[in-house]
Write a structure and sequence with these properties.
This protein has 229 residues and is mostly helical. It has 2 domains: 82 residues, Orthogonal Bundle (Arc Repressor Mutant, subunit A); 134 residues, Four Helix Bundle (Hemerythrin (Met), subunit A) (Up-down Bundle), CATH 1.20.120.530. It is built from 10 helices and 3 strands, in the order αβααββααααααα. Helix 4 packs parallel to helix 9.
């Protein structure tokens, strides 16, 4: 019985390790597609990617399946896997969905805000302002993600949180793409301040409105490319 228990634990550990490796590969490939490193129509070769990433082709194949469900890649029988020509459309649709869900999060946060939530949001926006002045883009990406997570936590809604989690896989990759543009750094921060102000003023309708506008405006600007001067 003891031996059976140990073997079972080892099997669970190995399964978790394989799952973690697959997730890493999925996140890496998703980011490469969302940020434009891999362009629509580009051929993604299993063997080549496995050598670059230092993994077997198994997690690559698993990643292709998951990214196929998301509309980012398309596998053509006897030809291979390619970045979907509709990848940008899929990204845009995810951002539309995200704007609706995070708009609700902001609305609920304004309705349920506690002193602890208020302090956390104030500290977060101050930290992001410092990073913006220091032009620390990589750290801003991380803190940007944390900013949206704090609002989700302040919403205190397990159901809405679960829906948000289901689309959060795109968030970090898309925000990284957005923050590649210098103009987006300032625009995004200004909008973040308005979101926090609306939540702190306990104005649910305004909080929802400015959050939705922020996400949709960012998506439109990023997907349309930098504006010509």
């Amino acid at each position: 019985m003891r031996e059976q228990s140990i073997n079972s634990d080892l099997f669970s550990l190995k399964t978790e390790q394989v799952k973690s490796l697959r997730d890493i590969v999925v996140e890496s490939l998703r980011e490469a597609i969302v940020t434009g490193r891999f362009q629509p129509g580009e051929h993604l070769k299993e063997r080549e990617l496995s050598e670059i990433m230092g993994v077997s082709t198994t997690p690559i194949k698993e990643a292709f399946r998951m990214l196929g469900y998301e509309g980012l890649v398309e596998t053509v029988p006897r030809k291979g896997t390619y970045v979907s020509d509709l990848a940008e459309t899929s990204i845009q649709e995810v951002q539309m969905l995200r704007s609706a869900v995070e708009g609700v999060c902001a609305k609920l946060a304004a309705m349920k805000l506690t002193e602890k939530d208020e302090m956390a949001l104030k500290q977060q926006i101050e930290k992001m302002e410092r990073l913006l002045k220091e032009n620390k883009v990589d750290q801003l990406v991380e803190e940007n993600t944390k900013f949206h997570r704090l609002i989700k936590e302040a919403a205190k809604s397990p159901m809405v949180s679960q829906v948000s989690d289901n689309i959060s896989s795109f968030d970090k990759a898309f925000r990284k793409r957005a923050l590649m543009e210098q103009s987006e750094l300032q625009s995004g921060f200004s909008e973040h301040k308005k979101i926090v102000e609306a939540i702190l003023s306990r104005d649910p309708e305004l909080a929802e409105k400015v959050m939705k506008q922020h996400i949709l405006r960012t998506a439109q600007d990023v997907l349309n490319g930098p504006k010509e001067k």
